[in-house]
Design goal:
Blueprint: E1 3-7, H1 16-25, E2 30-36, H2 46-59, E3 64-69, H3 73-81, E4 87-91, H4 98-110, E5 114-119, E6 137-141, H5 155-169, E7 175-179, H6 187-193, E8 197-200, H7 202-205, H8 210-218
Parallel strand pairs: 1-2, 1-8, 2-3, 3-4, 4-5, 5-6, 6-7, 7-8
Helix pairs in contact: 1-2, 5-6
């Protein structure tokens, strides 16, 4: 089953309530929370995403899919875990060594959250293989992290295939999430490669009808 995680990065101030309600009615599966610190990536959305998460928790029961693009992962986990997200994903590249990766995995589990690890486009996907049996999701960045509205890097489709093949060959229960440049044109190849969770922001929020595009993104063929 293909699920859709709608990025709320570009939700306009003053339009939060109507947008979040509309997305819930349109059957998005998750709210995707793009947490940036202005260090790991240039953009800083940290406080805005905290505010939006707090808002969502007051009006919706949909799960939060928190994507940490930050240097200080532990602080961000402490800040966002209080909002009871369904999953917290951190970047492999933000960890100084393998031990820190294990420490972060265990910390997220201590807060009873699912664990995701994300990799940037230039990172060899095989670097994540040893961690896959201990996490719930692999997030493949199909653009450079840090801003919305980018064009999907077609080489990343093969990266999705590689990690999906490894998951299946080792009989692992791990979701593959694709994030960046996902729209009705690019979603077909990404899904065929093995991604079962699609992150889309611009494509959904710029559409006339959220429900229609979300339904199209979810189609398995």
């Amino acid at each position: 089953m293909v699920e859709v995680s709608t990025s709320i990065l570009s939700v306009k101030k003053g339009k939060e309530a109507e947008t979040f309600f509309a997305l819930e009615q349109a059957k998005t599966d998750y709210f995707h929370i793009d947490v940036m610190d202005g260090k790991f990536v240039k953009k800083d959305t940290y406080n805005k995403m905290l505010e939006y998460c707090q808002y969502i928790k007051r009006i919706s029961t949909l799960p939060l899919d928190v994507h940490l693009m930050v240097e200080d992962i532990k602080k961000a986990i402490l800040d966002f875990s209080s909002l009871e997200p369904n999953i917290i994903t951190f970047h492999l590249e933000a960890c100084k060594d393998e031990q820190e990766v294990w420490d972060i995995i265990n910390l997220i589990k201590d807060f009873h959250c699912k664990v995701g690890i994300s990799v940037k486009p230039e990172t060899d996907i095989k670097q994540i293989f040893k961690f896959l049996p201990y996490i719930h999701m692999c997030l493949v960045m199909t653009v450079e992290p840090g801003k919305g509205g980018q064009t999907l890097l077609t080489d990343m489709v093969n990266k999705i295939s590689v990690v999906k093949d490894y998951i299946e060959q080792n009989d692992l229960d791990v979701d593959v999430e694709a994030d960046g440049g996902i729209n009705l044109r690019t979603a077909k190849d990404v899904k065929k490669a093995g991604a079962n969770i699609l992150v889309a922001g611009t494509a959904i929020l710029s559409a006339v009808n959220y429900k229609t595009i979300i339904e199209e993104l979810k189609k398995t063929s």
